[in-house]
Amino acid sequence: MTASPEAVVVRVDRGRCIGSGMCALGAPAALVLGPDGVAEPLAPYADGGADLTPELADAVDYCPVEALTLLSARGGYRIAPSE
Ligand code: SF4
Question: Is the CB of 69 under 6 A from ligand 1?
Fold first, then answer.
């Protein structure tokens, strides 16, 4: 299966995540709190169309410990957090 141009990948730094759950609340279509209390992506990449990217970018930016990174699935470039 090939990722669409809008598909994104959310990476979770498991060593940093404190399990606040904010990202799972802000982007429930793509992130969930796992049984160990650490955030995890629901799928290897999220392909929810253009609307999902700003939602995920907000979730990444609001993570209190900067544990999230949002990348383009196709190009691999970083979308959030911004430099
Ligand atoms: S917002 Fe950050 S600290 Fe909170 S659950 Fe998500 S990744 Fe973990």
Answer: no
pLDDT tens track for 29-41: 899 999 999 999 9
20-33 as b/e: b if 16+ CB within 10 A: bebbbebbeebbeb
Q: Domain 8-80 belongs to what topology?
A: Alpha-Beta Plaits (3.30.70)
Classify the C-alpha dihedral 68-70-71-77 as positive or negative: negative
Say if ligand 1 is within 6 A of residue 56 CB: no
Q: How many residues does this entry show for the chain?
A: 83
Q: What is the atom index within ligand 1 of the atom nearest the CA of 12?
A: 7
Summarised one tens digit per residue, pLDDT across range 36-65 is: 999 999 988 888 777 788 889 999 999 999
Domain ranges (residues) in the chain: 8-80
